[in-house]
Design a protein that fits this description.
single chain; 354 residues; alpha/beta; TIM Barrel; 2 domains; 8-stranded parallel sheet; 3-stranded antiparallel sheet; globular
Length: 354
């Protein structure tokens, strides 16, 4: 069978797979360029890239410079399609958005916040603007808010409740995740965007994300009307992923019951592996810490049990007793480390068979 291409704006990808942006430092230039070289979209996460010690005094400048280095590093390895993921709750989100625009990255993915002013920050229509959403209601809100700019989104990433990291659902919704499955949400989003596609004469691809694990899953999403999928968890246990071996091994060792929902210091639920660090914060009222970076506008420092930036960086380095390991719902299914090429070939074979 001919594998369907993924078209976002003027960007045409050989395969309908986007590698999801994973912070802090989980998806950097090495992973993103490897995925891009296989015909997908490789995503660099923009959060937590600067030197830790120096960032305590100059977080925003060092964060911007580190992002530029990662973009340039990836471009030295690939001429494929790259994206940068930016969280709207970052204190320097606007600056990072302008940086991505200045560096002429193919695609800017925006999550953890409403991108109501994104077209003001990125005037170049050649750069694909791709918001992450979790409902048809949010999709319509974004589309309505962009009408005053006479601009339409280039694609939506629809992230369901089985995704990893911070989630766009309440704890009560996550307890009834079947009611918010991609199979339910996707048709709703496709219905909402149809009038805007007709008005602008342009297709708005919807990329399904959250719990996509096999090529058969990809085929199912495509059959429901998705133009492609975003996958993140499966790319952690690849040779090219930049995290420590201890981080990858935590995925491989995890059982299904080890995947839990935690309350993040930013006030959102998040999905992670229940390790010694999580067990510790479950019983303690608070872990003593200082807010060194002021990196997240939504971080409730006074109420927070821990510094999420430090916890995620610790996990990246393999210091898991002090580290938070974000993951998707299916992380427990991973049992080995492979190359990106091997993973992509496996997925495409399964997709073809499906």
């Amino acid at each position: 069978m001919n594998i369907p291409q993924l078209t976002i704006g003027k960007t045409v990808c050989k395969i309908p797979i986007i590698q999801g942006g994973m912070g802090v430092r989980v998806s950097l230039a090495g992973l993103a360029s490897a995925v891009a070289n296989e015909g997908g979209v490789g995503t660099i996460s923009s959060i937590g890239l600067g030197d830790l010690e120096a960032s305590k005094n100059d977080y925003e400048r060092l964060s911007k410079e580190a992002l530029i280095r990662e973009i340039n590093k990836a471009r030295e390895i690939t001429d494929g399609h790259l994206a940068v993921n930016i969280m709207g709750v970052l204190s320097n989100a606007d600056d990072l958005v302008r940086t991505v625009a200045k560096e002429n990255v193919n695609t800017l993915v925006f999550g953890a916040g409403l991108p109501t002013k994104l077209p003001l920050l990125v005037e170049d229509s050649e750069i694909n603007l791709v918001p992450i959403i979790s409902s048809a209601r949010v999709a319509e809100l974004i589309l309505r808010s962009w009408r005053k700019y006479d601009r339409i989104v280039d694609a939506f990433i629809l992230e369901g409740p089985l995704a990893g990291g911070h989630l766009g659902f309440s704890e009560s919704q996550l307890e009834e995740s079947d009611k918010y499955s991609l199979e339910i949400l996707l048709p709703q989003v496709l219905e909402v965007i149809k009038p805007y596609e007709d008005k602008f004469g342009k297709k708005i691809p919807v990329i399904a994300a959250g719990g996509i694990y096999t090529g058969k899953d990809i085929a199912r999403m495509l059959s429901l009307g998705a133009s492609g999928v975003q996958m993140a968890t499966r790319f952690v246990c690849t040779n090219e992923c930049d995290v420590s071996e201890e981080f990858k091994q935590a995925y491989i060792n995890a059982g299904e019951d080890d995947i839990v929902i935690i309350k993040s210091p930013v006030g959102m639920p998040g999905r992670a592996i229940r390790n010694n660090f999580i067990k510790k914060i479950e019983v303690l009222e608070k872990v003593s810490f200082r807010c060194n970076y002021r990196c997240l506008t939504a971080c409730q420092v006074e109420k927070a049990k821990f510094c999420i930036a430090d916890a995620l960086v610790n996990a990246y380095y393999g210091n898991l007793d002090k580290g938070l390991i974000f993951c998707g719902r299916n992380a427990y299914r991973l049992d080995k480390i492979v190359s990106v090429k091997e993973l992509i070939n496996e997925l495409i074979t399964e997709l073809s068979e499906a």
